[in-house]
Amino acid sequence: MGFRKVICYSDSMDVISLVHGSRPNYHHYMAIVLHIQDLIRMDWEISINHILREWNSCADYLAKKGATSTSTFTILDYVPYELKHTLFSYAIGTWFARS
């Protein structure tokens, strides 16, 4: 099997600390954090990096969408239409200046 590398970006230092840190006795998303920690230990190279939300329009869009949602947690199993162009641009290495 070929070499696999996954690069993740988060605009939340709290999330990065939870994922990389010790396991607290209680956190309302601890089941998800434990699952992420299990994924990190799999046979691949993974890095989790901090990025300012203003520098990542996809994260910015999702954060704004989450802020207006009545749900406390949402899993998307599709790419929202509004993000398809932006994700493609990031995939080919295009970055946009934010105003």
TrEMBL record:
GO molecular function, one term: nucleic acid binding
Protein name: Putative ribonuclease H-like domain-containing protein
PANTHER family (alphabetical): RNASE H DOMAIN-CONTAINING PROTEIN (PTHR34023), RNASE H TYPE-1 DOMAIN-CONTAINING PROTEIN (PTHR34023:SF4)
Segments forming domain RNase H type-1: 2-65
UniProt xrefs under Pfam families: RVT_3
Domain of life (superkingdom): Eukaryota
